[in-house]
Amino acid sequence: QVQLVESGGGLVQAGGSLRLSCAASGRTFNNYRMGWFRQAPGEEREYVAAISWRGSTTYYADFVKGRFTISRDNAKNTIYLQMNSLKPQDTAVYSCAAAPKDQWRWEYWGQGTQVTVSS
Question: Is 27 helix (H, G, I), strand (E, B) or coil?
């Protein structure tokens, strides 16, 4: 089992920045690919970004490229999502997830943290 706890959400004006964190506990953190997802009210959950188990490779949805940066610190069992140039359409609950390091099957999920961007 892997337990994931997100933090860092909040209310920010359009154009502002937030940094989300996701702390993991349980099984060896660096055995897992990690990702961020988001879900807006009335919408389906969508993929935002992912990072390889070493942190050497990152992946982004087109709508966040150039604005968001995913990173990880395996010594702290934590991943981050730096979000810049935020837009009102980025408003959602952001959740982190873990997948076995060579797979894209997301097995563990956090509860999420609310991000609200005002116009």
Answer: coil
